[in-house]
Amino acid sequence: MVYNVEKQHKLGKLHALERICMLLDEDSFREIGSNMTNLEDAFNIKKGQFPYDGVITGYGTIGGQKVVIYSEDFTVIGGTLGKQHGFKIANAIKMAIENRCPVIGINDSGGARIQEGVNALAGYGEIFYYNTMASGYIPQISIIAGNCAGGAVYSPGITDFIFVIDNISQMFVTGPKVIKSVTNEDITADALGGANVHASKSGVAHFHMPDEKECFKRVRELISIIPPCFQEGYLHTNKALTNYSSNVHFNEALAHIIPEQSNQSYDIHDVIQGIVDQESFVEVQEEFATNVVVGFGRVKGVAIGIIADQPKFMAGVLDCDSSDKAARFIRYCDAFNIPIVTLTDVPGFLPGKDQEYKGIIRHGAKLLYAYSEATTIKINIILRKAYGGAYIAMSSKHLRADFVYAWPTAEIAVMGAEGAADILYGKQMKTMSPEEKAAFRQEKIDEYNEKFMNPSIAAMHGYVDEIIKPEATRERIYGDIIMLSDKRAVDGVHKKHGNIPL
After folding, report:
1. Does residue 16 have an active-site annotation?
2. What is the CA radius of gyration of the chain?
């Protein structure tokens, strides 16, 4: 087989086969369907003209884990998708389903092959169908290593994780030329659908990488931590548990992260790093909706998913985008039985006209729905603020978290003490002098703090299982996962499925 490697190099990109070889373990790739070609004669295209119909498919291993892979070849008629091309990809996904292993797609295509008409669309339809069948059964990873436009974007859109690469990735439903002709708007392809756009603005991408080499390295890291199939169970370790040594049971550094003043910010990453094994945290959608942090890590070798409010950005408040981000990650973890550890420090849902117009009710409901629906292990640590509806939404006992713990710094209430005092005694304070008002207001704030702003009240009612020392958090999480490793969902209402507020 002859591959036009230099043509790709001139564009600053690796060839489809080079990408496969760089991503997989050395000498592990086995190609499937190398002799398939285009089948139709149309518009100056001859039957059998395009080798392997522009997409290389096969299987191999990553860190010893078997994977199925396909890589579109932009040097073959721009990587456009014809019927055979589409059916090869669909068959690759089907093979991954049957063998219960991850499937990785490397996208570098000019879109549907116009010359094949509806047959090209049929190829896309087959891919979308098998993407949907694979969803929640095996991990699906998309790497955007070039153009991905029109109908081509919806296959990555269905998959679990999308990787974009600076100066290479472009994703959009309609390109700049079409936009110019329809709306008369001038915009570059990069400004419309480049890596930065989808990593930080649209939220379409989950990982934003500087180059292809770093991208493939991160894919390998992700494959090493996530289960290869939903049947893997709660204790997915990728052989790390038996080899893990120097276990740190208690981390004293956790006791010094939360500031003394409740209105001071801090970086939630410091808490995460104090809980997970060293260098094991893989953050997802790092640049999008930064007021919540999601990602995978390990605790004594066991893989977990983490959802954490980030006080460093917007005080950790929940809004439309962060609700979507967290809800989708919860559903991924639940589908693959990955234990979910929630770190709560949330002052509420973001108020305001803009959020209401964007549908904060609908988006916030997704978060409530996702936590309620999830039957995987759910552990919640309330670090500091847990106010109002956001307290409920962040994996509370009321949404059936298995264990809810609180640090001594936890504040669990309808709202902050200052706001509560103003609402409860606002009318009464109107008739007071400024000096009287200030003294009275502070008295009521102190009273509210004493009665409501501490974890012991929630613990008394059973909404918090234990008030724990921060340094004991890691050991608690690990012990709980081991204890709950045989957890089975209790049958609920028998139905086809619920209707998540999408």
Report:
1. no
2. 26
